[in-house]
Design a protein that fits this description.
Blueprint: E1 5-10, H1 17-29, E2 32-38, H2 49-59, E3 66-71, H3 75-82, E4 86-91, H4 94-110, E5 115-120, H5 130-138, H6 149-165
Parallel strand pairs: 1-2, 1-4, 2-3, 4-5
The structure holds adenosine-5'-diphosphate.
């Protein structure tokens, strides 16, 4: 068996301290962690795939066993392509579970050789979600405890620009 690879996919629009906690914990147990930035042409993002890539790359710069990729396709196809057998997803409240369970069933139907594993969030990050953080930033709230510094800077710059436009 080759090195135990895991992929952690998500929109990461933007990445939060909750995502970062999952990345840290996964990097400590798996030999290789591949963070996959999903870029779905049907979805509207605040940050482009390249911008999300830049933020996450900065966040994990010190980790020798972590890589970041942008993928515009099915996650199970990416897993198959790089020889990863595990998809990792983070879960917060029970409300996440509904969606995550369904997604895992879908992925299993698409490719039964790939397993989904769930990692529960640390209680410190229980309420953190990208959409909520964008809203807090929009209304001028303090997000410094919710996202890494690089993300805070990008978010404030982006929102500042948007406010000027209107
Ligand atoms: P998606 O848009 O693919 O649902 P997100 O970018 O919102 O993904 O999140 C990627 C993964 O990280 C998902 O599995 C999500 O449940 C998980 N996640 C999001 N926020 C947190 C958090 N605060 N703690 C732990 N896991 C989280």
């Amino acid at each position: 068996m080759g090195a135990m690879k895991v992929i952690y996919p998500g929109s990461f629009d933007p990445p939060t301290n909750g995502h970062f906690d999952i990345m840290n914990r996964a990097a400590a147990i798996f030999e290789e962690l591949e963070i996959v930035i999903a870029d779905n042409p049907q979805k509207k993002y605040l940050f482009s795939a390249d911008e999300r890539f830049e933020m996450i790359t900065t966040m994990v710069a010190e980790y020798p066993n972590v890589q970041v990729t942008i993928w515009r396709g099915l996650i199970v196809d990416f897993a198959e392509k790089i020889g990863a057998k595990v998809i990792l997803r983070g879960v917060r409240a029970l409300s996440d579970f509904d969606y995550e369970f369904e997604l895992s069933m879908m992925n299993r139907a698409l490719n039964p050789r790939i397993e989904t594993l769930f990692m529960p969030t640390d209680q410190k990050y229980f309420v953190l979600r990208s959409s909520g953080i964008k809203e807090v930033a929009m209304f001028g709230g303090d997000i410094s405890e919710m996202v890494p510094t690089i993300v805070e800077q990008k978010l404030l710059a982006r929102i500042g620009k948007q406010t000027q436009q209107t």
